[in-house]
Design goal:
The chain is an alpha/beta fold and about 400 residues long. It contains 11 helices and 20 strands. Helix 1 runs parallel beside helix 8 and helix 1 (about 15-25) crosses helix 11. It binds flavin-adenine dinucleotide. Flavin-adenine dinucleotide (FAD) binds next to helix 1, helix 2, strand 14 and strand 18.
Length: about 400
């Protein structure tokens, strides 16, 4: 049996980065993934580094918006984590943080932006409201229909195909044992240790992290636990390469849109449009199969992009893809130690590309015994009632 200080199940951005931060502090870490590192949502996503409160938090009433605003404290940390990531890894990850605009087209959306920015500023985020003319001065590609925008000087994007892989390599250099293509089949609690079994090997450690994205609920079930993370299939689109014209991250406060231009010139267009997940023989969502593109999602996603930046209409779409991510029962991520199961940590849900390195750094810090209050807003304890009759 291979013994470590920490076993990490799931080699997405959260798992790889937690391994890296722990290994840098000298911990013995083993990281297992059923496929290759970064092949889940961490390698399929849009690469947006969005620090403004997301539209999905704003559309479900004031109570959720108020609660979600507290995530701005984590966004502030994420700004600093992303700013130093390339230097820390000594690798080019195509990170740009040239600023982001969350645009509005109607008076109602402008009012929503104003309320959002008040909440963000109260949490220490430096977003500001600008009118349509100032938005077009910063971003001349924006349509005349844009009447205001929330401007964040730090937003941007990174290449999702590079980031997780680079961090996995750094974790291995710092001593992490990497086990790709090793699907965890069972997790047992034996005294103070957790024993993880794959088809070929057994591993033991006193602390484990389950960071399995959309698969988290299945893996937590191995410990007879409920973790309310649900899979969702999303759509992304890429245009042909064009001359650099969109240096910002562009989002919309009232419609689903995220848009950016990659290092190589392609425009990536998404924003949370659904795709249709396949079902397995038992009628459950088949998480290892790519979801199907929903035609109306594709059409409506491009419609918003063209309304916001009319030049998109002149550029050819070359590719659409889908990916599966996880969303929690209350939309906020679930990150922390499970109260009923000391030593067992979970991390997943939400926009964990933007917040992934920060979650990882804070988990590593907490696992090493240095308590950090920043994770309280996302702690799994808020779902403890689901586990009153569960556990080992
Ligand atoms: C299309 C799309 C666009 C998105 N855009 C953005 C964005 O622009 N910005 C943003 O912040 N977020 C975005 N997200 C969300 C973001 O990608 C995810 O929140 C984040 O990548 C999750 O990382 P993770 O490490 O939690 O999980 P994942 O990257 O999904 O990794 C989980 C890993 O667990 C492994 N695993 C599962 N079961 C087992 C098992 N039994 N044994 C071993 N390993 C197992 C899987 O193989 C996988 O590699 C997007 C998601 C999608 C799908």
């Amino acid at each position: 049996m291979r013994k470590s200080d920490v076993l990490i199940v799931g080699g997405g951005l959260i798992g790889c980065a937690t391994a890296w931060y722990l290994a840098r502090e000298g911990a013995k870490v083993t990281l297992l993934d059923s496929g290759d590192f970064g092949m889940g949502a961490s390698g399929q996503n849009a690469g947006s580094l969005h620090f403004q409160l997301e539209r999905r938090f704003l559309e479900n009433g004031d109570a959720l918006a108020e609660q979600a605003a507290r995530i701005a404290a984590l966004s502030r940390l994420a700004i600093s984590d992303w700013s130093s990531l390339e230097a820390d890894l000594a690798t080019d990850l195509h990170i740009t943080m040239n600023g982001g605009l969350m645009v509005a087209e109607t008076a109602e959306e402008c009012a929503l932006l104003e309320r959002k920015i008040t909440r963000e500023n109260a949490e220490g985020l430096q977003t500001r409201m600008i009118d349509g003319d100032e938005a077009r001065q910063i971003a001349p590609y924006l349509s005349e229909a844009i009447c205001a925008a929330g401007y964040s000087p730090d937003e941007g994007h990174a290449d999702a195909r590079l980031v997780t892989h680079a961090i996995a390599i750094a974790a291995a250099k710092d001593g992490t044992v990497l086990r790709p293509r090793c699907r965890v089949q069972s997790i047992e609690k034996a005294g103070r240790k957790y024993v993880i079994s794959t088809a070929e090997e057994q591993f033991a450690a006193s602390q484990i992290l389950i960071a399995c994205g959309a698969w988290t609920a299945h893996v937590a079930a191995m410990l007879n636990l409920h973790i309310p993370l649900f899979p969702v299939g999303l759509l992304m689109n890429a245009t042909e390469r064009v001359a650099q014209a969109v240096p910002h991250l562009v989002q919309h406060v009232g419609r689903r849109l995220s848009m950016k231009q990659t290092h190589s010139g392609n425009l990536l267009i998404g924003g949370g449009w659904p795709s249709r997940m396949a079902l397995d023989a038992e009628g459950r969502f088949a998480l290892y199969r790519p979801p199907a593109v929903i035609e109306s999602s594709l059409r409506d996603n491009l419609r918003v992009a063209i309304d916001v930046a009319p030049m998109i209409a002149t550029i050819s779409l070359i590719r659409s893809w889908t990916g599966i991510t996880a969303i929690s029962a209350d939309q906020l991520p679930i990150v922390g130690e499970i109260p009923a199961m000391p030593g067992c940590w979970v991390a997943g849900g939400g926009s964990a590309f933007t917040l992934g390195p920060t979650f990882a750094r804070l988990i590593a810090q907490s696992m090493s015994g240095r308590k950090c209050g920043e994770l309280e807003i996302v702690a799994p304890s808020r779902f403890s009632h689901l586990n009153s009759f569960m556990g080992q």
